[in-house]
Structures are given as structure tokens and as C-alpha cells.
Amino acid sequence: MPRHLLNPMDFSVEELDRLMDLAGDIRSNPDKYAHACDRKTLATCFYEPSTRTRLSFESAMYHLGGHVLGFSSADSSSAAKGESVSDTIRVISSYADICAIRHPKEGAAYVASLHSGIPVINAGDGGHQHPTQTLTDLLTIRTLKGRLDRIRVGLCGDLKFGRTVHSLINALSRYEGIEFVMISPPELRVPEYILENLDAKNISYVQVQSLDDAITDLDILYMTRVQRERFFNEDDYVRMKDFYILNKEKMSLAPADMLVMHPLPRVNEISVEVDEDPRAVYFQQAQFGMYIRMALILTLLEIKVD
Ligand code: CP
Q1: SS3 per-residue string spanning 38-92
Q2: How many angstroms does the Cα of residue 56 sit away from the middle of ligand 1?
Q3: Whose CA is nearest to atom 5 of ligand 1?
Q4: I need a surface site. Which of 63, 177, 214, 291 has the fewest CB within 10 A?
Q5: How far apart are CA 105 and CA 120, in angstroms?
Q6: Is the pTM value of this prediction over 0.90?
């Protein structure tokens, strides 16, 4: 049976460490891995728009010497004619060695995995999970902060629909001494099922509304976009979309060693003037995404490079 990645919790902490070590080695010694996936093919099946996830997967496979095929929207695949995800993945299993799938419906990657003969990677399923973004985030924090435990993480913006936040909370909740500061308007708070999980593990969190108050005492500020595509009506989106805007003035309140992360794409929630601040690491974070996806492809295909 192929191994899949549907949720960041599919990997143990030790496996995550090995994956991040491998990503670090790939980053330091790219030539060593340049032919690791010769004659292997990655399928990218994207039923929803993407820039970073799809292109970093494709770039990852090219840097490993492999090939890529796929589609970048539902409209350009036979989904537009009514084909199911399960039929599509059955067919793709005979065209490719591994598949990354993004879909607007929660659980779509899981359904694909049940009918797949090749490893399936969840590249985002609706408002549910985005495990490879979480791998990217963990690698970014570990590399730039030097640790994944004893950190105070502020999560700011759309914590209700933001799948990257849901996956990150799950993954970080396994490390020692993690504290979450959840900064959102009441309408966009973290779903109850995630809070129940934190309560069960006795993990420290607070839910607040003021970014100005919270920013003074954080190791990481993880900003998120308000997820327009998941709102049921446009008026609610318009009311919420500019609730938080991180600018120079707010950054002046933050600790000197706080990192600003964002899964991107950014809309208005981080002013471009913040990009010059050395604490703003979101573009570097996107670069880490390619290395961790290279490591993930090698791991799921069980390819070892000596
Ligand atoms: N972070 C992320 O998932 O970006 P894309 O939607 O561009 O893939």
C-alpha cells in the first residue's frame, strides 16, 4: 500500500525531524539529489487556484530530475464533465508515480487516497488541512528560530476558514511548551473541534481581538488572509477583509526577534512597507516550501540518496 500525506499528524515528530533534516541536506547539497527522481513522474491535480503549492511541487520534482504532468483547474480536466475524484485518481495512478491534489471540498484528498495506487499528497482540501504548508512552516521556524518547542505563536486573521492555521496548530501542539495567541474577530475564531483538541492535551491558548496588545510578546506572528472563497456572502467578507493590517507602526511594538510569517498569497493584511523589515520572512518561507516538498517526494517514494 502506498503511503499518503493527508494531515500533518500522519508523520510522527521523529519522522518530521528526519524530513526536515533531509530538506536541510537538499538545500545545502542540491547536486547530490539532481537525479534522485530520474524516470519518476509527479501528477499535480489542482481543482483550485494555486501559485506556491503547485509550482513549488513542480519545481521540486524538476530539481530531483523527474517529470511533471497535471492540470491547474477543474475546468481544464474531466471534472468539468462530471468525473469523480476517485475515477480520476485511478486513472492517474497508471500515468504517474505520486500525486499532489488540491480540491475545494474537505476530505477530497482522503477519498483520492482510498482509490489510489500511488502516494497521494493533500495540497489543500477546502477549509480543512494544508499539510505541506505546515511542513514548510515547521522547517521555516526550525531553521530561523533554531527550535520548535517553547515558542509563543500568534495566529492572526481568518482562523475559521484558514486551513494552514488548522494544520499548523495540530502540528505544533506536539512540541513542548507551545503557547498559542489566537488573534481574530469573534466571527473568524478557530473552529471548536481544534480548541477541544488543545484542551484535551492541556495546551495553552488565548483568544483575543487586539493585534496591538498581542504583538508585544510573541516569538512568531503568523498572519493570514481572509479566505474570500469560503465565505457564504460577500457582505461578510467585505466587513472582515481589512480587520487586521500589519504595518510599520504595529511592527514597532513587536519584539526585535519576532518572525512574521504568512503562507501567502497576501492581500491587504501585511502592508508592503513591512517587507523590508528583517523580521518579515514570508518570502523566505515560500522558498523553504520547495525543499521540504523535495524531501517529501523522496520520502513517500522511498528513494534514498547516499
Ligand atoms: N500557501 C499556499 O497554499 O499558496 P498557494 O495557494 O498559492 O498555493
Answers
A1: CCCEEEEEECCCCCHHHHHHHHHHHHCCCEEEEECCHHHCHHHHCCCHHHHHHHH
A2: 10
A3: 50
A4: 177
A5: 16
A6: yes
132-286: CATH class:
alpha beta
Question: Dihedral through CA 140, CA 193, CA 177, CA 248, nearest 10?
Answer: 50
Angle at 26 between CA 23 and CA 28, to 5 degrees: 110
**Rounded Cα gap, residues 34 and 60, in angstroms:** 10
Does domain 8-129+287-300 sit in CATH 3.40.50.1370? yes
Q: Is 230 exposed, middle or buried (0-12, 13-18, 19+ CB in 10 A)?
A: middle
For 41-50, write each residue's pLDDT tens digit: 999 999 999 9
Residue 108 to residue 110: CA distance in whole angstroms = 5
Active site residues: 52-53, 81, 102, 130
Q: Where exactly are the structural domains of the chain?
A: 8-129+287-300, 132-286
